[in-house]
Amino acid sequence: MEVESSGNSSVDTSTLAADGQATKDSSPGPVSPEDSMPGFLKLSRAEIHNKFIDLEWQQRNRLARGGTYSPENDSQWARLANDETARRNRYMNVDPFVQNRVPLRVPEGHSDYINASFIKLSNTISGTKREFIATQGPKEGMHSHVWRMMWHECADPVVIVMLTQTYESGREKCFQYFPFDMANPELPVNEEDEFEDGFIATLTLKSITEDEATSSTIREMELTTADGQTKKVWHMLFGGWPDYSIPEGEDINGLVRLVDFSASKNPAIPDSGRTAPRVVHCSAGVGRTGTFIALDWLLAEFREGRFDNIDEDKDPIADIVDDLRRQRMMMVQGEQQFFFLYDVMRQLWIDRQTGNEKRLKLDGASLSPEEKLRAEFEQEMKDNAERI
């Protein structure tokens, strides 16, 4: 719900002294939501910018130390580098770390590489373990790899959050790896048995819904293997988030609701204190993907009450971005995405303090002309790195 300014009070707060002269009431007034905010939500744009620059330098140092994986170099930041991994990558400058990459389950002698990373987080108060697979948008001819990964690594149902359109600004950002509509509800998966292990499947679209609450297209599907085993699949396509930018207007509310909706469909692992991994991807699987995962964790921290008595020198937003980047490079890639996390959490704090929790509105979330130019420049640099 929109937060309205209280404006100037029309109530006269003065009182009369014994001599009849008016004096101001010395009793303290109500504490504003802004005054009660934890320190990290009071940071200025310049202070947040400096934190982002620090994170960028930490990442550069990390990547420089990591290098290419080899038996002699088993750094936790090492990445694979060979012709096959390069062919399977959508972008030449985005690779998973070897330490937590997702290996495809394929027979010996075949490459098990897919550009995907296990992401493991833990909430501070509840200790809930939140798990994800962050991955790039599948490339043409390789969509069976992602379905193989989901079959083996995800629970039933599989939950997928897609944060990109298949095409943006005339460029393919993600191959359409799922049935588009009910006119053509089936998609064969690995019908040529690429890895010669018999994993052949069919993906069938059961329903499709344009969901206004989450600003998303929700597809309910079924993945069926050749031997008759099945898994339900929830596929959630959030299209209101341009690359290197942020959602605006009602799409912000939709994104917050999508975080909750995707979590509600995702099964918990019994007696483990953890969730099954949700698959989250955009195009490269770092910018929008990292922002979504960070927001999911931050919302849980907020609702569990962690921000209520947090130390003034603590900044869970910068901390979670650093944690994510230690698990997959470039997570929350753009500075505007970093700002966005502060904007959302600040407004959620205000809404809770004022009782306006039904609708989130971020008046300051739109990009300034200067910020839009910066985002366009970052997009151009990213496009130049793409392998055609």
TrEMBL record:
Composition-biased stretches (Polar residues): 1-16
InterPro entries in the cross-refs: Prot-tyrosine_phosphatase-like, Protein-Tyr_Phosphatase, PTP_cat, Tyr_Pase_AS, Tyr_Pase_cat, Tyr_Pase_dom
Domain Tyrosine specific protein phosphatases positions: 253-339
Region of interest: Disordered: 1-38
GO MF annotations in UniProt: protein tyrosine phosphatase activity
Residue ranges annotated for the Tyrosine-protein phosphatase domain, each copy included: 84-348
Pfam (any one): Y_phosphatase
Family: Belongs to the protein-tyrosine phosphatase family. Non-receptor class subfamily.
Record-given protein name: Uncharacterized protein
Source lineage: Eukaryota, Fungi, Dikarya, Ascomycota, Pezizomycotina
